[in-house]
Amino acid sequence: MCIHMLINWFHDPEKYQWMCIEGNKELGNIKSLDDVICFTASGEYELYQVKFTIDSGRDDLRLDFDWLLKKKPKGTSLIEKWSADLEIFGDSNVISIAKLITNRKPDTVLSNCLDGNKIDYNLVPDEIKARVSTQLGDERKAITFFKNLIIEHSQHEIDDLELKLQDSLVPDHANNESWLQLLKTVERWATRKNEPSPDGRIFLEHIHEILSLGSKRTISQFFEVPGGYIPPVEEFHKEILERSTKPGCSVISGLPGMGKSTYLSFLTDQLIEKKTPVIRHHYYLSPHFIGDRIAFNNAARSLQSQIKSLYPLDFEGDKLDSQQLDTWVSRAADKAAESEEILVVIIDGLDHVYRERSDISQLEHLVNRIDPLKEKICLLYGTQPISDEYLPNSLLRSAPREKLWIDIPAMGLGAIKERIDFLVSIEEIDVVGENEHQRSEIVEISQAFLDISQGYPLHIIYSLNSLKLAGNKISRYDVERLPTCPEGDIHTYYENLWVSLSESAKEILLLIASADFLWPDETHLEFCFDDSLIFRNSFAEIQHLIEKRLSGITPFHSSLFVFLKRKGEFSDSKERLNQKSKAWIDRKRKTNHRVAS
Protein backbone atom coordinates (compact mmCIF):
# COMPACT_ATOMS: atom_id res chain seq x y z
CA MET A 1 0.00 0.00 0.00
CA CYS A 2 2.96 2.30 0.58
CA ILE A 3 3.94 1.81 -3.06
CA HIS A 4 0.36 2.68 -4.02
CA MET A 5 0.54 5.96 -2.13
CA LEU A 6 3.98 6.82 -3.47
CA ILE A 7 2.73 6.30 -7.02
CA ASN A 8 -0.36 8.42 -6.35
CA TRP A 9 1.96 11.14 -5.09
CA PHE A 10 4.14 10.75 -8.19
CA HIS A 11 1.06 11.34 -10.36
CA ASP A 12 -0.14 14.22 -8.14
CA PRO A 13 3.11 15.96 -7.08
CA GLU A 14 1.37 18.85 -5.26
CA LYS A 15 -0.39 16.50 -2.85
CA TYR A 16 2.29 16.05 -0.16
CA GLN A 17 5.40 17.74 1.19
CA TRP A 18 6.87 14.45 2.37
CA MET A 19 6.02 10.89 3.36
CA CYS A 20 7.57 8.34 5.68
CA ILE A 21 7.20 4.63 6.35
CA GLU A 22 7.01 2.96 9.75
CA GLY A 23 6.94 6.15 11.83
CA ASN A 24 8.86 9.40 11.94
CA LYS A 25 11.03 11.18 14.50
CA GLU A 26 8.82 14.23 14.44
CA LEU A 27 5.84 12.06 15.41
CA GLY A 28 7.74 9.83 17.79
CA ASN A 29 4.76 9.08 20.02
CA ILE A 30 2.73 7.58 17.17
CA LYS A 31 3.08 3.83 17.64
CA SER A 32 0.41 2.12 15.53
CA LEU A 33 -1.15 4.37 12.90
CA ASP A 34 2.31 4.78 11.40
CA ASP A 35 2.69 2.30 8.54
CA VAL A 36 2.55 5.33 6.24
CA ILE A 37 2.53 8.95 7.39
CA CYS A 38 1.96 11.72 4.87
CA PHE A 39 2.40 15.45 5.45
CA THR A 40 0.10 17.31 3.08
CA ALA A 41 0.74 20.53 1.19
CA SER A 42 -1.67 22.29 3.57
CA GLY A 43 0.25 21.17 6.66
CA GLU A 44 -1.95 18.29 7.83
CA TYR A 45 -1.07 14.70 8.61
CA GLU A 46 -2.49 11.54 7.07
CA LEU A 47 -2.00 8.40 9.17
CA TYR A 48 -2.36 4.92 7.68
CA GLN A 49 -2.36 1.45 9.19
CA VAL A 50 -2.15 -1.45 6.72
CA LYS A 51 -3.38 -4.89 7.77
CA PHE A 52 -3.39 -7.60 5.11
CA THR A 53 -4.19 -11.19 6.01
CA ILE A 54 -3.07 -14.35 4.23
CA ASP A 55 -6.54 -15.40 3.03
CA SER A 56 -9.27 -12.79 3.10
CA GLY A 57 -11.84 -15.38 2.08
CA ARG A 58 -11.63 -17.32 5.35
CA ASP A 59 -14.44 -16.81 7.86
CA ASP A 60 -11.98 -16.72 10.78
CA LEU A 61 -10.09 -13.86 9.13
CA ARG A 62 -13.00 -11.49 8.72
CA LEU A 63 -13.00 -7.82 9.65
CA ASP A 64 -15.04 -8.01 12.85
CA PHE A 65 -15.24 -6.44 16.29
CA ASP A 66 -13.64 -9.48 17.92
CA TRP A 67 -10.50 -8.90 15.86
CA LEU A 68 -10.49 -5.16 16.60
CA LEU A 69 -10.98 -5.72 20.34
CA LYS A 70 -8.84 -8.82 20.76
CA LYS A 71 -5.91 -8.48 23.17
CA LYS A 72 -3.58 -10.52 25.32
CA PRO A 73 -3.88 -10.42 29.15
CA LYS A 74 -1.31 -7.64 29.52
CA GLY A 75 -1.58 -6.24 26.01
CA THR A 76 -3.66 -3.67 24.17
CA SER A 77 -6.18 -4.13 21.38
CA LEU A 78 -5.98 -2.54 17.94
CA ILE A 79 -8.72 -0.11 18.90
CA GLU A 80 -6.83 0.92 22.03
CA LYS A 81 -3.60 1.46 20.07
CA TRP A 82 -5.23 3.51 17.33
CA SER A 83 -7.30 5.57 19.74
CA ALA A 84 -4.18 6.40 21.77
CA ASP A 85 -2.44 7.64 18.63
CA LEU A 86 -5.35 9.92 17.74
CA GLU A 87 -5.58 11.30 21.27
CA ILE A 88 -2.02 12.64 20.98
CA PHE A 89 -3.28 15.32 18.61
CA GLY A 90 -6.36 16.17 20.69
CA ASP A 91 -8.58 18.76 18.99
CA SER A 92 -5.78 20.37 16.99
CA ASN A 93 -7.34 19.40 13.64
CA VAL A 94 -3.94 18.56 12.18
CA ILE A 95 -5.08 15.02 11.33
CA SER A 96 -6.93 15.05 8.02
CA ILE A 97 -7.05 11.27 7.59
CA ALA A 98 -6.71 8.33 9.98
CA LYS A 99 -7.27 5.18 7.99
CA LEU A 100 -7.17 1.39 8.27
CA ILE A 101 -6.49 -0.34 4.95
CA THR A 102 -7.14 -4.09 4.87
CA ASN A 103 -8.05 -6.95 2.58
CA ARG A 104 -10.27 -8.39 5.30
CA LYS A 105 -13.96 -8.46 4.50
CA PRO A 106 -16.43 -7.26 7.16
CA ASP A 107 -18.67 -9.80 8.82
CA THR A 108 -22.42 -9.22 9.01
CA VAL A 109 -22.34 -7.42 12.37
CA LEU A 110 -19.65 -4.91 11.44
CA SER A 111 -21.05 -4.48 7.94
CA ASN A 112 -24.39 -3.43 9.42
CA CYS A 113 -22.58 -0.73 11.43
CA LEU A 114 -20.87 0.87 8.44
CA ASP A 115 -22.03 4.20 7.10
CA GLY A 116 -19.87 4.62 4.03
CA ASN A 117 -16.29 4.00 5.14
CA LYS A 118 -16.80 4.71 8.85
CA ILE A 119 -18.43 2.83 11.71
CA ASP A 120 -21.58 4.63 12.92
CA TYR A 121 -21.46 4.39 16.70
CA ASN A 122 -25.25 4.55 16.91
CA LEU A 123 -25.50 1.32 14.90
CA VAL A 124 -23.06 -0.63 17.08
CA PRO A 125 -24.73 -3.32 19.26
CA ASP A 126 -24.87 -2.42 22.97
CA GLU A 127 -22.71 -5.37 24.01
CA ILE A 128 -19.91 -4.19 21.70
CA LYS A 129 -20.33 -0.56 22.77
CA ALA A 130 -19.74 -1.67 26.34
CA ARG A 131 -16.56 -3.56 25.39
CA VAL A 132 -15.20 -0.58 23.44
CA SER A 133 -16.00 1.90 26.22
CA THR A 134 -14.35 -0.38 28.78
CA GLN A 135 -11.16 -0.55 26.72
CA LEU A 136 -11.01 3.17 25.89
CA GLY A 137 -12.12 4.44 29.30
CA ASP A 138 -15.47 6.06 28.51
CA GLU A 139 -18.12 6.33 25.82
CA ARG A 140 -17.01 9.79 24.68
CA LYS A 141 -13.65 8.40 23.55
CA ALA A 142 -15.41 5.57 21.74
CA ILE A 143 -17.66 7.99 19.85
CA THR A 144 -14.70 10.21 18.92
CA PHE A 145 -12.65 7.23 17.77
CA PHE A 146 -15.28 5.84 15.40
CA LYS A 147 -16.00 9.34 14.11
CA ASN A 148 -12.38 9.72 12.99
CA LEU A 149 -11.32 6.25 11.79
CA ILE A 150 -11.79 5.53 8.08
CA ILE A 151 -11.91 1.86 7.06
CA GLU A 152 -10.97 0.73 3.55
CA HIS A 153 -11.82 -2.96 3.59
CA SER A 154 -11.93 -5.77 0.98
CA GLN A 155 -8.87 -4.42 -0.82
CA HIS A 156 -7.30 -6.16 -3.83
CA GLU A 157 -4.89 -8.96 -3.01
CA ILE A 158 -1.25 -7.88 -3.08
CA ASP A 159 -0.35 -9.63 -6.37
CA ASP A 160 -3.31 -8.12 -8.24
CA LEU A 161 -2.62 -4.68 -6.83
CA GLU A 162 1.08 -4.89 -7.73
CA LEU A 163 0.31 -5.61 -11.38
CA LYS A 164 -2.12 -2.68 -11.58
CA LEU A 165 0.43 -0.36 -10.00
CA GLN A 166 3.16 -1.56 -12.35
CA ASP A 167 0.96 -0.86 -15.36
CA SER A 168 0.30 2.65 -14.05
CA LEU A 169 4.04 3.39 -14.29
CA VAL A 170 5.38 1.14 -17.02
CA PRO A 171 6.06 2.01 -19.77
CA ASP A 172 4.99 5.66 -19.69
CA HIS A 173 6.99 6.75 -16.64
CA ALA A 174 9.47 3.96 -15.92
CA ASN A 175 10.95 0.75 -17.22
CA ASN A 176 10.70 -2.66 -15.64
CA GLU A 177 14.10 -2.47 -13.97
CA SER A 178 13.31 0.84 -12.27
CA TRP A 179 9.93 -0.55 -11.15
CA LEU A 180 11.67 -3.49 -9.48
CA GLN A 181 14.22 -1.09 -8.02
CA LEU A 182 11.38 0.95 -6.51
CA LEU A 183 9.94 -2.15 -4.83
CA LYS A 184 13.33 -3.13 -3.45
CA THR A 185 14.18 0.38 -2.24
CA VAL A 186 10.86 0.94 -0.48
CA GLU A 187 11.30 -2.39 1.28
CA ARG A 188 14.70 -1.18 2.47
CA TRP A 189 13.26 2.13 3.69
CA ALA A 190 10.61 0.25 5.66
CA THR A 191 13.18 -1.85 7.52
CA ARG A 192 15.91 0.73 8.18
CA LYS A 193 15.87 3.92 10.18
CA ASN A 194 16.99 7.28 8.82
CA GLU A 195 16.52 6.40 5.16
CA PRO A 196 16.29 7.82 2.57
CA SER A 197 16.95 11.06 4.48
CA PRO A 198 18.36 11.44 8.02
CA ASP A 199 14.88 11.92 9.53
CA GLY A 200 13.36 9.08 7.50
CA ARG A 201 11.36 11.38 5.25
CA ILE A 202 10.72 10.51 1.62
CA PHE A 203 10.65 13.43 -0.80
CA LEU A 204 9.36 13.39 -4.35
CA GLU A 205 12.86 13.67 -5.79
CA HIS A 206 13.69 10.30 -4.23
CA ILE A 207 10.92 8.70 -6.30
CA HIS A 208 11.96 10.51 -9.49
CA GLU A 209 15.54 9.39 -8.98
CA ILE A 210 14.57 5.72 -8.71
CA LEU A 211 12.13 5.72 -11.62
CA SER A 212 14.68 7.36 -13.89
CA LEU A 213 17.06 4.47 -13.42
CA GLY A 214 17.45 2.30 -16.49
CA SER A 215 19.28 -0.77 -17.60
CA LYS A 216 21.08 -1.40 -20.87
CA ARG A 217 20.62 -5.14 -20.56
CA THR A 218 18.13 -6.73 -22.94
CA ILE A 219 16.32 -10.04 -22.69
CA SER A 220 17.25 -13.06 -24.77
CA GLN A 221 15.20 -14.06 -27.81
CA PHE A 222 16.90 -17.42 -28.32
CA PHE A 223 14.42 -20.18 -29.07
CA GLU A 224 16.00 -23.53 -29.87
CA VAL A 225 14.94 -25.23 -33.08
CA PRO A 226 15.26 -29.01 -32.62
CA GLY A 227 17.61 -30.96 -34.85
CA GLY A 228 16.02 -32.48 -37.92
CA TYR A 229 13.28 -29.84 -38.03
CA ILE A 230 11.81 -28.78 -41.35
CA PRO A 231 8.59 -26.80 -41.87
CA PRO A 232 5.45 -28.92 -41.42
CA VAL A 233 4.40 -28.47 -45.06
CA GLU A 234 6.57 -26.95 -47.79
CA GLU A 235 3.70 -25.00 -49.40
CA PHE A 236 2.96 -23.25 -46.11
CA HIS A 237 6.60 -22.23 -45.72
CA LYS A 238 6.73 -20.87 -49.26
CA GLU A 239 3.68 -18.71 -48.60
CA ILE A 240 5.20 -17.22 -45.44
CA LEU A 241 8.50 -16.56 -47.21
CA GLU A 242 6.56 -14.79 -49.95
CA ARG A 243 4.75 -12.62 -47.38
CA SER A 244 8.08 -11.73 -45.77
CA THR A 245 9.21 -10.02 -48.96
CA LYS A 246 6.39 -7.46 -48.89
CA PRO A 247 5.25 -4.83 -46.41
CA GLY A 248 2.09 -5.64 -44.49
CA CYS A 249 0.75 -7.46 -41.49
CA SER A 250 -0.02 -11.18 -41.03
CA VAL A 251 -0.90 -13.43 -38.11
CA ILE A 252 0.28 -17.05 -37.86
CA SER A 253 -2.06 -18.97 -35.58
CA GLY A 254 -1.74 -22.44 -34.10
CA LEU A 255 -3.28 -24.56 -31.38
CA PRO A 256 -1.11 -25.39 -28.33
CA GLY A 257 1.68 -27.73 -29.37
CA MET A 258 1.35 -27.14 -33.11
CA GLY A 259 4.93 -25.84 -33.26
CA LYS A 260 4.12 -22.22 -34.08
CA SER A 261 7.00 -20.74 -32.07
CA THR A 262 9.38 -23.40 -33.35
CA TYR A 263 8.42 -22.54 -36.91
CA LEU A 264 8.82 -18.79 -36.35
CA SER A 265 12.28 -19.38 -34.89
CA PHE A 266 13.16 -21.57 -37.87
CA LEU A 267 11.85 -18.82 -40.15
CA THR A 268 14.03 -16.26 -38.35
CA ASP A 269 17.11 -18.43 -38.88
CA GLN A 270 16.24 -18.86 -42.55
CA LEU A 271 15.79 -15.11 -43.05
CA ILE A 272 19.12 -14.42 -41.35
CA GLU A 273 20.81 -16.93 -43.69
CA LYS A 274 19.23 -15.11 -46.65
CA LYS A 275 20.63 -11.80 -45.30
CA THR A 276 17.12 -10.48 -44.71
CA PRO A 277 17.02 -7.96 -41.83
CA VAL A 278 14.82 -9.44 -39.11
CA ILE A 279 14.10 -8.64 -35.45
CA ARG A 280 11.81 -10.54 -33.09
CA HIS A 281 10.28 -10.71 -29.64
CA HIS A 282 8.87 -13.82 -27.97
CA TYR A 283 6.41 -13.08 -25.17
CA TYR A 284 7.07 -16.59 -23.91
CA LEU A 285 10.17 -18.76 -24.11
CA SER A 286 9.95 -21.38 -21.38
CA PRO A 287 8.60 -21.81 -17.84
CA HIS A 288 12.10 -21.57 -16.36
CA PHE A 289 12.87 -18.17 -17.90
CA ILE A 290 13.47 -15.63 -15.12
CA GLY A 291 12.46 -12.11 -16.07
CA ASP A 292 9.56 -10.12 -17.43
CA ARG A 293 8.96 -10.65 -21.13
CA ILE A 294 5.55 -8.94 -21.05
CA ALA A 295 6.70 -5.44 -20.05
CA PHE A 296 6.75 -3.05 -23.00
CA ASN A 297 10.10 -1.54 -22.00
CA ASN A 298 11.82 -4.93 -22.01
CA ALA A 299 10.35 -5.93 -25.36
CA ALA A 300 11.12 -2.56 -26.95
CA ARG A 301 14.72 -2.44 -25.76
CA SER A 302 15.29 -5.99 -26.98
CA LEU A 303 14.05 -5.02 -30.44
CA GLN A 304 16.22 -1.89 -30.38
CA SER A 305 19.26 -3.92 -29.36
CA GLN A 306 18.69 -6.19 -32.36
CA ILE A 307 18.39 -3.15 -34.62
CA LYS A 308 21.75 -1.95 -33.29
CA SER A 309 23.25 -5.31 -34.21
CA LEU A 310 21.81 -5.06 -37.73
CA TYR A 311 22.99 -1.49 -38.32
CA PRO A 312 25.77 -0.75 -35.79
CA LEU A 313 27.16 2.30 -37.59
CA ASP A 314 23.79 3.98 -38.06
CA PHE A 315 22.72 3.52 -34.43
CA GLU A 316 26.14 3.71 -32.77
CA GLY A 317 25.40 6.89 -30.79
CA ASP A 318 21.79 6.07 -29.91
CA LYS A 319 20.88 4.94 -26.42
CA LEU A 320 18.19 2.32 -25.93
CA ASP A 321 14.98 4.22 -25.24
CA SER A 322 11.72 2.30 -25.41
CA GLN A 323 9.76 5.51 -26.02
CA GLN A 324 11.62 5.85 -29.32
CA LEU A 325 10.87 2.33 -30.57
CA ASP A 326 8.74 3.46 -33.51
CA THR A 327 11.44 5.93 -34.59
CA TRP A 328 14.10 3.21 -34.43
CA VAL A 329 12.03 0.72 -36.42
CA SER A 330 11.20 3.36 -39.03
CA ARG A 331 14.87 4.30 -39.44
CA ALA A 332 15.85 0.61 -39.68
CA ALA A 333 13.17 0.07 -42.33
CA ASP A 334 14.55 3.00 -44.33
CA LYS A 335 18.05 1.57 -44.04
CA ALA A 336 16.81 -1.82 -45.28
CA ALA A 337 15.06 -0.13 -48.21
CA GLU A 338 18.37 1.37 -49.32
CA SER A 339 19.45 -2.21 -50.09
CA GLU A 340 16.04 -3.03 -51.60
CA GLU A 341 15.18 -5.16 -48.58
CA ILE A 342 12.19 -5.31 -46.23
CA LEU A 343 12.67 -5.24 -42.46
CA VAL A 344 10.80 -8.21 -40.95
CA VAL A 345 9.45 -7.82 -37.40
CA ILE A 346 8.23 -11.02 -35.69
CA ILE A 347 6.20 -10.77 -32.48
CA ASP A 348 5.30 -14.19 -31.07
CA GLY A 349 3.28 -15.49 -28.13
CA LEU A 350 0.55 -12.86 -28.01
CA ASP A 351 -1.76 -15.30 -26.21
CA HIS A 352 0.60 -15.49 -23.23
CA VAL A 353 0.08 -11.82 -22.39
CA TYR A 354 -3.52 -12.07 -21.21
CA ARG A 355 -2.75 -15.29 -19.31
CA GLU A 356 0.00 -13.64 -17.28
CA ARG A 357 -1.49 -10.17 -16.82
CA SER A 358 -4.87 -8.80 -15.80
CA ASP A 359 -4.97 -6.72 -18.99
CA ILE A 360 -3.14 -6.45 -22.31
CA SER A 361 -1.94 -2.85 -21.98
CA GLN A 362 1.74 -3.81 -22.33
CA LEU A 363 1.00 -5.63 -25.59
CA GLU A 364 -1.06 -2.68 -26.81
CA HIS A 365 1.84 -0.31 -26.10
CA LEU A 366 4.08 -2.38 -28.38
CA VAL A 367 1.62 -3.02 -31.20
CA ASN A 368 0.43 0.59 -31.28
CA ARG A 369 4.04 1.74 -31.78
CA ILE A 370 4.89 -0.57 -34.68
CA ASP A 371 1.52 -1.08 -36.41
CA PRO A 372 1.55 2.34 -38.15
CA LEU A 373 4.78 1.25 -39.88
CA LYS A 374 3.20 -1.73 -41.66
CA GLU A 375 3.41 0.06 -45.02
CA LYS A 376 7.21 -0.11 -44.85
CA ILE A 377 7.90 -3.28 -42.82
CA CYS A 378 6.67 -6.88 -42.78
CA LEU A 379 4.90 -7.57 -39.49
CA LEU A 380 4.41 -11.22 -38.54
CA TYR A 381 2.52 -12.02 -35.34
CA GLY A 382 2.26 -15.46 -33.74
CA THR A 383 -0.51 -16.53 -31.38
CA GLN A 384 -2.68 -19.38 -30.26
CA PRO A 385 -6.35 -18.93 -31.20
CA ILE A 386 -7.80 -16.33 -28.79
CA SER A 387 -10.81 -14.05 -28.80
CA ASP A 388 -10.65 -10.48 -30.05
CA GLU A 389 -10.91 -9.02 -26.54
CA TYR A 390 -7.38 -10.24 -25.79
CA LEU A 391 -5.83 -8.62 -28.85
CA PRO A 392 -5.10 -4.95 -29.61
CA ASN A 393 -7.71 -3.31 -31.81
CA SER A 394 -5.01 -1.91 -34.07
CA LEU A 395 -3.81 -5.45 -34.85
CA LEU A 396 -7.33 -6.66 -35.65
CA ARG A 397 -7.85 -3.73 -38.00
CA SER A 398 -4.54 -4.28 -39.77
CA ALA A 399 -4.88 -8.07 -39.98
CA PRO A 400 -8.54 -9.15 -40.31
CA ARG A 401 -8.97 -12.80 -39.35
CA GLU A 402 -10.70 -13.78 -42.60
CA LYS A 403 -7.95 -12.30 -44.79
CA LEU A 404 -4.57 -12.15 -43.11
CA TRP A 405 -4.59 -14.97 -40.55
CA ILE A 406 -3.00 -18.25 -41.56
CA ASP A 407 -3.15 -21.46 -39.53
CA ILE A 408 0.03 -23.45 -39.15
CA PRO A 409 -0.63 -26.89 -40.66
CA ALA A 410 -0.02 -30.27 -39.08
CA MET A 411 3.24 -32.08 -39.84
CA GLY A 412 3.29 -33.92 -43.10
CA LEU A 413 4.93 -37.31 -43.60
CA GLY A 414 8.16 -35.70 -44.83
CA ALA A 415 8.55 -33.52 -41.72
CA ILE A 416 7.91 -36.49 -39.41
CA LYS A 417 10.39 -38.71 -41.25
CA GLU A 418 13.06 -35.97 -41.20
CA ARG A 419 12.78 -35.73 -37.42
CA ILE A 420 12.96 -39.50 -36.91
CA ASP A 421 15.95 -39.79 -39.26
CA PHE A 422 17.74 -37.21 -37.14
CA LEU A 423 16.95 -38.96 -33.83
CA VAL A 424 18.20 -42.26 -35.25
CA SER A 425 21.38 -40.60 -36.54
CA ILE A 426 22.27 -39.24 -33.08
CA GLU A 427 21.22 -42.55 -31.45
CA GLU A 428 18.44 -41.04 -29.33
CA ILE A 429 16.12 -43.77 -30.58
CA ASP A 430 16.88 -47.20 -31.99
CA VAL A 431 14.86 -48.60 -34.88
CA VAL A 432 14.70 -52.29 -35.74
CA GLY A 433 16.64 -53.57 -38.74
CA GLU A 434 19.84 -52.59 -40.48
CA ASN A 435 20.63 -50.51 -43.55
CA GLU A 436 17.88 -50.83 -46.20
CA HIS A 437 15.56 -52.71 -43.83
CA GLN A 438 15.93 -49.97 -41.22
CA ARG A 439 15.32 -47.21 -43.79
CA SER A 440 12.16 -48.99 -44.87
CA GLU A 441 11.12 -49.38 -41.23
CA ILE A 442 11.62 -45.64 -40.62
CA VAL A 443 9.19 -44.87 -43.44
CA GLU A 444 6.60 -47.20 -41.88
CA ILE A 445 7.22 -45.75 -38.41
CA SER A 446 6.77 -42.23 -39.79
CA GLN A 447 3.48 -43.23 -41.39
CA ALA A 448 2.36 -44.85 -38.12
CA PHE A 449 3.12 -41.63 -36.24
CA LEU A 450 1.12 -39.67 -38.80
CA ASP A 451 -1.80 -42.08 -38.37
CA ILE A 452 -1.97 -41.92 -34.56
CA SER A 453 -1.21 -38.20 -34.24
CA GLN A 454 -2.71 -36.69 -37.39
CA GLY A 455 0.58 -34.80 -37.60
CA TYR A 456 0.16 -33.04 -34.25
CA PRO A 457 3.77 -32.11 -33.31
CA LEU A 458 3.39 -32.14 -29.52
CA HIS A 459 1.72 -35.54 -29.55
CA ILE A 460 4.53 -36.88 -31.73
CA ILE A 461 7.10 -35.47 -29.27
CA TYR A 462 5.35 -37.08 -26.28
CA SER A 463 5.07 -40.37 -28.15
CA LEU A 464 8.75 -40.34 -29.12
CA ASN A 465 9.72 -39.52 -25.52
CA SER A 466 7.66 -42.43 -24.29
CA LEU A 467 9.32 -44.87 -26.70
CA LYS A 468 12.78 -43.46 -25.99
CA LEU A 469 12.34 -43.90 -22.22
CA ALA A 470 11.30 -47.52 -22.77
CA GLY A 471 14.75 -48.13 -24.25
CA ASN A 472 13.69 -50.78 -26.79
CA LYS A 473 14.19 -51.06 -30.53
CA ILE A 474 11.20 -49.39 -32.18
CA SER A 475 8.98 -50.79 -34.90
CA ARG A 476 5.74 -49.46 -36.39
CA TYR A 477 3.84 -51.89 -34.15
CA ASP A 478 5.19 -50.10 -31.07
CA VAL A 479 3.94 -46.80 -32.47
CA GLU A 480 0.51 -48.22 -33.31
CA ARG A 481 0.05 -49.29 -29.68
CA LEU A 482 0.57 -45.75 -28.36
CA PRO A 483 -2.36 -43.53 -27.24
CA THR A 484 -3.81 -41.51 -30.10
CA CYS A 485 -4.55 -37.80 -30.27
CA PRO A 486 -8.19 -37.53 -31.36
CA GLU A 487 -9.07 -34.54 -33.54
CA GLY A 488 -5.58 -33.11 -33.12
CA ASP A 489 -6.42 -31.68 -29.68
CA ILE A 490 -3.64 -32.07 -27.11
CA HIS A 491 -6.10 -31.48 -24.27
CA THR A 492 -8.02 -34.56 -25.37
CA TYR A 493 -4.74 -36.48 -25.26
CA TYR A 494 -4.09 -35.17 -21.74
CA GLU A 495 -7.60 -36.13 -20.65
CA ASN A 496 -7.31 -39.66 -22.01
CA LEU A 497 -3.91 -40.01 -20.36
CA TRP A 498 -5.21 -38.54 -17.08
CA VAL A 499 -7.89 -41.18 -16.60
CA SER A 500 -5.30 -43.92 -17.12
CA LEU A 501 -2.76 -42.55 -14.62
CA SER A 502 -2.36 -43.89 -11.11
CA GLU A 503 -3.37 -41.57 -8.27
CA SER A 504 0.29 -41.11 -7.33
CA ALA A 505 1.21 -40.11 -10.89
CA LYS A 506 -1.59 -37.53 -10.86
CA GLU A 507 -0.30 -36.29 -7.51
CA ILE A 508 3.19 -35.80 -8.95
CA LEU A 509 1.89 -33.73 -11.85
CA LEU A 510 -0.29 -31.60 -9.57
CA LEU A 511 2.63 -31.08 -7.19
CA ILE A 512 4.86 -29.84 -10.03
CA ALA A 513 2.12 -27.55 -11.37
CA SER A 514 1.17 -26.07 -7.99
CA ALA A 515 4.70 -25.05 -6.95
CA ASP A 516 5.86 -21.51 -7.70
CA PHE A 517 9.43 -22.82 -8.05
CA LEU A 518 11.15 -25.54 -10.07
CA TRP A 519 11.75 -28.86 -8.31
CA PRO A 520 15.50 -29.61 -8.67
CA ASP A 521 14.94 -33.26 -9.68
CA GLU A 522 12.78 -36.29 -8.92
CA THR A 523 14.69 -37.21 -5.76
CA HIS A 524 13.43 -34.00 -4.16
CA LEU A 525 9.89 -34.73 -5.33
CA GLU A 526 10.21 -38.18 -3.80
CA PHE A 527 10.52 -36.59 -0.35
CA CYS A 528 6.83 -35.67 -0.57
CA PHE A 529 5.73 -39.30 -0.93
CA ASP A 530 5.70 -42.05 1.68
CA ASP A 531 6.56 -45.01 -0.55
CA SER A 532 9.69 -44.64 -2.70
CA LEU A 533 8.88 -47.59 -4.96
CA ILE A 534 5.37 -46.34 -5.69
CA PHE A 535 6.79 -42.88 -6.41
CA ARG A 536 9.37 -44.19 -8.89
CA ASN A 537 6.79 -46.29 -10.73
CA SER A 538 4.38 -43.35 -10.81
CA PHE A 539 7.05 -40.93 -11.99
CA ALA A 540 7.76 -43.27 -14.91
CA GLU A 541 4.11 -42.88 -15.99
CA ILE A 542 4.46 -39.13 -16.55
CA GLN A 543 8.17 -38.81 -17.30
CA HIS A 544 7.59 -38.32 -21.03
CA LEU A 545 5.61 -35.12 -20.31
CA ILE A 546 8.44 -33.27 -18.58
CA GLU A 547 12.00 -32.11 -19.09
CA LYS A 548 14.87 -32.29 -16.65
CA ARG A 549 17.02 -29.20 -17.03
CA LEU A 550 19.82 -27.72 -14.96
CA SER A 551 17.26 -25.25 -13.61
CA GLY A 552 14.93 -28.07 -12.54
CA ILE A 553 11.91 -30.06 -13.68
CA THR A 554 9.71 -28.27 -16.21
CA PRO A 555 6.77 -29.32 -18.39
CA PHE A 556 7.81 -30.11 -21.93
CA HIS A 557 5.04 -27.78 -23.11
CA SER A 558 3.14 -25.04 -21.27
CA SER A 559 -0.19 -26.57 -22.37
CA LEU A 560 0.31 -29.29 -19.73
CA PHE A 561 0.09 -26.75 -16.90
CA VAL A 562 -2.89 -25.06 -18.58
CA PHE A 563 -4.67 -28.44 -18.61
CA LEU A 564 -3.74 -29.29 -15.01
CA LYS A 565 -4.79 -25.93 -13.60
CA ARG A 566 -8.23 -26.30 -15.16
CA LYS A 567 -8.81 -29.60 -13.39
CA GLY A 568 -11.01 -29.62 -10.31
CA GLU A 569 -8.39 -31.74 -8.57
CA PHE A 570 -5.90 -28.88 -8.89
CA SER A 571 -7.95 -26.33 -6.94
CA ASP A 572 -9.19 -28.97 -4.48
CA SER A 573 -5.68 -30.14 -3.59
CA LYS A 574 -3.68 -26.90 -3.91
CA GLU A 575 -3.57 -26.12 -0.19
CA ARG A 576 -2.61 -29.69 0.70
CA LEU A 577 0.09 -29.77 -1.97
CA ASN A 578 1.44 -26.40 -0.83
CA GLN A 579 1.90 -27.91 2.62
CA LYS A 580 3.97 -30.71 1.07
CA SER A 581 6.08 -28.17 -0.79
CA LYS A 582 6.55 -26.13 2.38
CA ALA A 583 7.67 -29.22 4.31
CA TRP A 584 10.28 -29.92 1.63
CA ILE A 585 11.46 -26.28 1.65
CA ASP A 586 11.77 -26.31 5.45
CA ARG A 587 13.77 -29.53 5.35
CA LYS A 588 16.04 -28.18 2.60
CA ARG A 589 16.59 -24.97 4.58
CA LYS A 590 17.58 -26.94 7.69
CA THR A 591 19.94 -29.10 5.63
CA ASN A 592 21.57 -26.02 4.10
CA HIS A 593 21.91 -24.48 7.55
CA ARG A 594 23.69 -27.58 8.89
CA VAL A 595 26.03 -27.58 5.90
CA ALA A 596 26.75 -23.87 6.33
CA SER A 597 27.53 -24.23 10.02
Question: How is this structure best described in words?
Answer:
By secondary structure, the chain is an alpha/beta fold. It folds into 4 domains: 1-214, no CATH class; 234-407, P-loop containing nucleotide triphosphate hydrolases (Rossmann fold), CATH 3.40.50.300; 413-487, no CATH class; 501-596. Helix content is 49%, strand content 12%. The strands form 4 sheets. A 5-stranded mixed β-sheet has the order 1-2-3-4-7. Strand 13 (546-549) and strand 14 form a beta hairpin. Helix 12 (296-310) packs parallel to helix 13 (325-338). The protein is globular. Mean pLDDT is 87; it is low at 591-597.
What key phrases describe this protein's structure?
single chain, about 600 residues, alpha/beta, Rossmann fold, 4 domains, about 50% helix, disordered C terminus
Round the Cα radius of gyration to an integer and report it: 30 Å
Q: Strand order within the widest sheet? A: 1-2-3-4-7
Would you tell me the overall average pLDDT? 87
Q: Which structural class fits the helix and strand makeup?
A: alpha/beta
Distance between the termini: 38 Å
Main β-sheet description: 5 strands, mixed
- Helix residue percentage: 40-55%
Estimate nothing, just give the exact number of structural domains.
4
Q: Which quaternary structure do these chains form?
A: single chain
